[in-house]
Automatic annotation (TrEMBL):
Keyword set includes tRNA processing: no
CDD domains per UniProt: Radical_SAM (cd01335)
Annotated GO biological process: tRNA wobble base 5-methoxycarbonylmethyl-2-thiouridinylation
Radical SAM core domain residues: 1-238
GO MF annotation list: 4 iron, 4 sulfur cluster binding; catalytic activity; metal ion binding
Protein name: Radical SAM protein
Keyword Iron (UniProt): yes
Annotated signal sequence range: none
Cellular component annotations (GO), alphabetically ordered: cytoplasm
Cofactor: [4Fe-4S] cluster
A UniProt-annotated Pfam family: Radical_SAM
Keywords for this protein: 4Fe-4S, Iron, Iron-sulfur, Metal-binding, S-adenosyl-L-methionine
């Protein structure tokens, strides 16, 4: 059954500084932090809407800030409100997101007592210069230390990475992905940088000191990262920011597309198809492109982009499912009369 989150946003409480790209209130659309009553109400409402069976697979998720850096009393108020729903097995567990420098053995012990099962770290980059330029206030070493403590504590470990930040390069992004994968996270969220109004990045952009990502750049790198993490056993649970009117109204530039995940899948199929063409060199004309079931529309591409690419090369493609294929694999077939001897 599909995993679900009861997402509760705690914007900016506990952040020791304002990172260059961040305006959580705009990203999440949440202006005021919730209290325990709001958490209980959200859980009860989700339980009613989901039904008991689906809820058992869902997590209460505290997102949007630096959960373990918020005042301890407030953190406990929120956890206490969520805990009964987990103890009574209404929900599977509690997920939180926090800063790498706000993890220590004492806070992990507390999180365990309150039923937290998964911890996501906002790592963003593993390049200390990029972290410094973007006012993250922590180092790559903090990400490594926190990741080890979380894994040793038996929690599910998640990482969030961002690319295209001020001072970032494709090489630094790839190096970040390698260092994060080496820490063996269970899940990954990948965000191409988006420039929001009233942020440091917006100022740098207006002064001509920062070049934001373009959408094609964001798609190409996201596709590379998706493929890299998946082939290293890391499940990518999010690509790009959630679409919202608030976000779209406050975005100035950057690698945002409401269907980024779909575009990445199209791109990975495009690359596979090109590789297959080179290896198989099929005769022009009718060409059957077989892909994993459920992936046909991704292989065809948005606005038939991959089908058009083949047509422009002289093929008449037909995309079909093949149960023996998985992921972004594809296989070509063409009429027997045209088989090469
Ligand atoms: S990115 Fe995280 S730590 Fe930085 S300001 Fe935003 S919520 Fe706070």
């Amino acid at each position: 059954m599909k995993h679900a989150n009861i997402a509760i946003f705690v914007p900016h409480v506990g952040c020791p500084n304002r990172c260059s790209f961040c305006d959580q209130r705009r990203i999440t659309g949440v202006q005021a932090p919730p209290d325990g009553g709001a958490v209980r109400a959200a859980c009860e409402q989700a339980l009613q809407q989901m039904g008991e069976e689906r809820a058992r697979n869902a997590e209460v998720a505290f997102f949007g800030g630096s959960f373990t850096a918020i005042p301890r009393e407030y953190m406990i108020e929120l956890l206490e409100a969520a805990r009964p729903f987990v103890w009574e097995h209404a929900f599977h567990g509690i997920r939180i997101s926090t800063r790498p420098d706000a993890i220590d053995p004492e806070v992990l012990g507390l999180l365990r007592v309150y039923g937290v099962t998964a911890i996501e770290l906002g790592a963003q980059s593993m390049d200390d210069e990029v972290l410094r330029l973007n006012r993250r206030g922590h180092t790559a070493r903090d990400v490594e230390n926190a990741s080890r403590m979380i894994r040793a504590g038996g929690f599910s470990l998640g990482h969030q990475m961002m690319f295209g930040l001020y001072g970032d390069t494709a090489e630094k992004t790839i190096a970040t992905a390698r260092r994060l994968a080496a820490l063996k996270p269970d899940t990954m969220r990948v965000y191409p940088t988006v420039v929001l109004k009233n942020t440091m990045l917006a100022e740098l952009y207006e002064q001509g000191r920062y070049r934001p990502l373009t959408v094609p750049e964001a798609v190409r790198m996201s596709a590379w990262l998706l493929n890299y993490f998946e082939t290293h056993g890391v499940s990518v649970i999010r690509l790009g920011l959630h679409a919202s009117r608030e976000l779209e109204e406050n975005m100035i530039a950057g690698g945002y597309h409401a269907a980024l995940g779909e575009l990445c899948a199209n791109e990975l199929f495009r690359q596979r198809i090109l590789r297959e063409l080179e290896q198989c060199n099929p005769p022009l004309g009718k060409l059957v492109v077989e892909v994993a079931p459920g992936r046909v529309s991704q292989a065809v591409g948005q606005r038939r982009s991959n089908a058009l690419m083949l047509e422009q090369r002289g093929y008449q493609p037909k995309f079909c499912p093949n149960r023996s294929l998985t992921g972004y694999q594809c296989r070509f077939r063409w009429p027997l009369s045209k088989q090469r001897k």
